[in-house]
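DM from R.C. (forwarded with permission)

"hey, sorry to bug you on a friday — could you get me a structure for this? deadline for the figure draft is monday and I only need the backbone to look sensible"
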Amino acid sequence: MAHSRRFRFGIQLSQPFPGTSWQDTARRVEELGYSSLFVPDHFGDQLAPLTALAVAAEATTTLKVGALVFDNDYRHPVVLATETATLDVLSSGRVELGLGAGWMLSDYEQSGMTYDPPGVRVDRFEEALAVIKGLFGEEPVDFDGEHYSISGLRGRPAPHTPGGPPVLVGGGGRRVLGIAARTADIVGINPNLREGVIGPGAVADTMAGATDQKVAWVREAAGERFDEIELNILSFMSSITDDPAGLAEGVAGVMGVDPADVLAAPTVVIGSRSGVAEVLEERRERWGFSYYVFQGDSAEAMAPIVADLAGR
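My reply, with the result:
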């Protein structure tokens, strides 16, 4: 069945809202109408994702939970498949599995993990994704790859969601976006982070022209299944304001780009309540984005947009 491209919204959080517990934070996110709560997967000042997601799911009734995204290099795919299936069972099917090849150089340097070239990390990620999806199925898995070897292993527990929870794969380069287009239920359009840091190159890669190219890559690789894919984007800046031009000018100075380019970038969501709603409608028409994830400090501010657009 083709995806209806109705709007839904998520929040990404590393910590509870100030002055409250993680459980109450999750309940507040649910109350505000958000579809999902995501936790990043890094080694900085944040909650560890799997434990945080389990607690958030237990504290809520409808909220979907996931990592945005799990770094494949931090967990063996058999371990991640088992943990994810368990969380899916215990949450009655409220998991979205985000998976990526890993990108943040400081994580690898500080943990002592080898930071392989992008092509190697993507090769390993692609194998891991195949292993995980296989373990979500009913038959034992045999897999003989360059990085992983699985012999007659049946995935247990079986996930609550038949075939496993929805898979979210985000990327900024053609190869990863092609993998996402062919295999994922949700495709995230991201900046290219091959440099291992968020610098000028990554900022430039969030602009409208770059996004046109990325969506075209996804469309080409997906073929007939393109309309079944939910297109997702993480907003790096979101604000309701009556002076979007002024705010964009300030941001442009920091980012080293033109204010008009800031306003047009799909990762930036700023404007009046009605203006933002109109812009998101236009972006859905242009690119197909229907699933927006805002940063945690924007949860309350962007709740009116959720109220206006969710399900439309």
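R.C.: lifesaver. The first helix runs from residue 22 to 31.
me: no worries. Residues 283 and 289 are 6 Å apart (CA to CA).
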